[in-house]
Amino acid sequence: MKFQYDDGGRAAAGFTGKAGDCVTRAVAIATGQPYAAVYAVLALNAGRERNSRGATARNGIHTSRKWFKNYMRALGWEFVATMGIGTGCTVHLRAEELPPGRLVVSVSRHYCAVIDGVIHDAFDPQRGGLRCVYGYWRKAVAA
Question: Could you tell me the residue ranges of all domains in the chain?
Answer without folding.
Answer: 2-139
